[in-house]
Design brief:
This is Restriction endonuclease BglII. It comes from Stratiformator vulcanicus. The protein is an alpha/beta fold and about 170 residues long. Helices cover about 35% and strands about 25% of the residues. The radius of gyration is 15 Å and the shape is globular.
Length: about 170
């Protein structure tokens, strides 16, 4: 089952966010956590056709030419000096997608994804996909609780307009 929630909860999900959810739903049975045992790269490969259809550029491998670098800092002559890599990027909409598997919560990878998206130039939206279940851990629920706490406390203001959390 695909679970999802959009933040802030006071905003309706964007049209592109709903399209991202649909891409996950279209491959749901092939990527279902606890059943498929797929790595994040395998899940991303299954999502690639649908994400590309809605305008995303999607990482195709680990070689430099296959990765998607999103600028963070600019140096001399306006050339990117520091970049972070994204799993998928919709440049026109300023939307980044990160797909995680086992280490999404256990190693706090979702927090690194959040931080990096906040630093990326012209990025306004982030989608983080985590397993619904990883072993006996409820990863989606753990990240949902974290974002609920972050948005409810209002102690941390993010430069992002929205975050889509997807559980697969």
């Amino acid at each position: 089952m695909i679970n999802w929630i959009y933040y802030p909860k006071s905003d309706q999900p964007t049209s592109l966010s709903l399209q991202v959810v649909k891409v996950f739903e279209d491959v749901e049975t092939a990527i279902e956590s606890g059943v498929s045992g797929k790595s994040s790269n395998e899940v991303l490969a299954m999502l690639r056709p649908g994400l590309e259809q809605v305008g995303f550029t999607v990482e195709s491998g680990k070689k430099a030419s296959e990765r998607i670098a999103v600028p963070v800092l600019f140096g001399r002559n306006g050339k990117p000096e520091k970049s972070f890599h994204a799993d998928a990027y919709h440049e026109k909409e300023g939307y980044v997608i990160e797909v995680e598997a086992g280490r999404g919560v256990v190693n706090n990878q979702f927090l690194k994804d959040l931080f990096q998206a906040c630093m990326m130039h012209d990025v306004e939206f982030l989608s983080i996909a985590v397993c619904n279940w990883y072993g006996s851990n409820r990863d989606f629920e753990s990240v949902e609780r974290f974002f609920d706490t972050m948005y409810t406390s209002q102690r941390l203001q993010l430069p992002l307009k929205g975050i889509l959390l997807v559980g697969y």
